Amino acid sequence: MLRKLLIGTALASGLAFAAHAEDVKEVQMLHWWTSGGEAAALNVLKQDLAKEGYAWKDVPVAGGGGDAAMTALKAMVAAGNYPTASQMLGYTVLDYAAAGVMGDLTETAKKEGWDKSVPAALQKFSVYDGKWVAAPVNVHSVNWLWINKAVMDKIGGTEPKTFDDFVALLDKAKAAGVVPLALGGQNWQEATMFDSVVLSTGGPEFYKKAMNDLDDASLKSDTMKKSFDNLAKLVTYVDPNFSGRDWNLATAMVIKGDALVQVMGDWAKGEFHAANKTPGTDFLCYRFPGTDGSVIYNSDMFGMFNVPDDRKAAQVALATATLSKSFQSAFNVVKGSVPARTDVPDTDFDACGKKGIADLKKANEGGTLFGSLAQGYGAPPAVANAYKDVVSKFVHGQIKTSDEAVTELVKAIDDAK
Amino acid sequence: MSTVATSQIKLTPEDTRPRATMRSRLQDALPKIVLAPSFAITIVFVYGFILWTIYLSFTNSKTFPSYAITGGRAYQRLWNWTFDTDPPSSWYTSITNMGIFGFLYIAICLALGLFLAILLDQKIRGEGVLRPIYLYPMALSFIVTGVAWKWFLDPGLGLEQTLHQWGWTSFHFDWIKNKDFVIYTVVIAGVWQASGFIMAMFLAGLRGIDGEIMKAAQIDGATTFQLYRRIVIPLLRPIFLSAFIVLAHLAIKSYDLVVALTSGGPGGSAWLPSNFMYEYTFKRNEMAVGSASAVIMLMTIVAIIVPYLYSELREKPR
Fold first, then answer.
1. Domain at B93-315: CATH architecture
2. A189: nearest CA in chain B?
3. Cβ neighbours of residue A196 under 8 Å, at least 6 residues apart?
4. Complex ipTM above 0.95?
């Protein structure tokens, strides 16, 4: 019954498309970049496309957030009414590609040389079965510290190089009466911080084994227990009111000088920029202590759907514009992330951006570019969320010891696999 | 002449009869025609999708529905999670929260609603102003209620902060940040929203009680307490039942309140089964588990509604 209905709808919309004989000069885009900085960054792309004569049409999403957008996308795809492209994350692209609804941009990719310029780790998500199905827009990196420089100067701190340095620094802040660590007690923020803690505690090899390969032995190893102990140590430095706080409010605590440091992905930089702060003078960006040289990434992608032929030209134009060097630079300067291709000049970026680009290049060449498990680039959503559950329950005390935490982690991940 | 007359006589009934039947047929059919679209929509979008959900819960659907039946693994996983108490699994948290929330929400709303209704029924001045004040929270969406209470209960922002500024620095109320108490803040916000509506229901019930009975009881020397305890409250029994049904379904479907108020609570400690269902179906791409949890929610509602319908239908012949 429902299938018939869906097929009917699909046919109807297919007919509607077929009615247009010539190319449709319009890009239909599903995304949730609606907040000030993000919308401004996306405007660059809209203008690039307008120059080539393509109109931009946002697919409306009620509710705004990424979850609502993904629910809307699911409904659209089920009805056979594909948008030209949709903002997508990690495994979602692969899920849709496996369902056979994604387009094929391999020709464009060859012409534009994406194979060489886009890091191999990213291609794992943008290439399915040898075909390019998505255009990566940016690379976010998760293992950053964001520090208020005024507070840092006041307590006489220096860049922490090891985890112990970091704890000593937090102690100094505590003694000076500021909140040492700004954390939002939501499961993804806790797990995002834990990504960095694991990398710092176990090193790159261990991170890859545990968090990307989901190797049971590593997951229940003593190193993992040590990681949980280190996380517990960090949580003693947050203010009592942290539970449920949004990430940008935690960033605001650092911006205002109420807190010393936040461990957060580089989207936090957007908040500093919005508050007119400059890196180096107002705030500092360091790699999470003990993780220099490695990058834990996540990436926004534009998934390209298998649209009717008359819309393919617009899709190619969108993909080409998305991965053009000029857009990659202009967009990522505003967004706080770094370009998804490693051959974009870093001239327009600030100090943190320059470091991010250099780090990405180094990590890509050295094989230390890893997907963030918390951000859904380490494992499929079911596993990633099981992981977030365990970390969050550990932070909030439902899971009491690191022994129990690793047991639960293995159990939850195996159950979700 | 006679032929004409007979034909005329014949004509008249033949002429009027079809018109009358057409009209009466139309009159008979009209309610059915008017109701048909909504009936069809209900069949498809309520009962059709219930069946579809039940079907999906027996498949191994992940991101997208898959239609090959693979057995009751989703139910098996839920069943295992039901007994994962230490550390609590998300499902265990959800169903225990449902128990706590459902019981307190319904009980407090009924008690408070009845109490307010009795007070308002004392023929006081300004009732016309007071009644809407209590009733208006129901006009707000759960999201608005949730956000308002979130700010009010936040220790760094609302009540606690304000009292600290006024000088009562020992005051401490951080339930919304506490994994063991966060579900009670959901009860507080939920009760605030619904009790006024329940009050209105009881008030209507109280107004429907014959004043003669009350007077008779008073003449017989009943105290006010006895009057309410022995006469008024028993007479309100049907209202209790309707209020209970309204509250029970509000409790089971209150997803948005939890999200807006607590965004799931510390470590997911404020989840209700509806949150569980949404998380697993749409965020974790485990559609089969999500569907199975939805079916269990439905069964819970059925377990409440069916005895109610049964008692209602049984009373009719009397």
1. Orthogonal Bundle (1.10)
2. B267
3. A142, A143, A263, A288, A291, A296
4. no
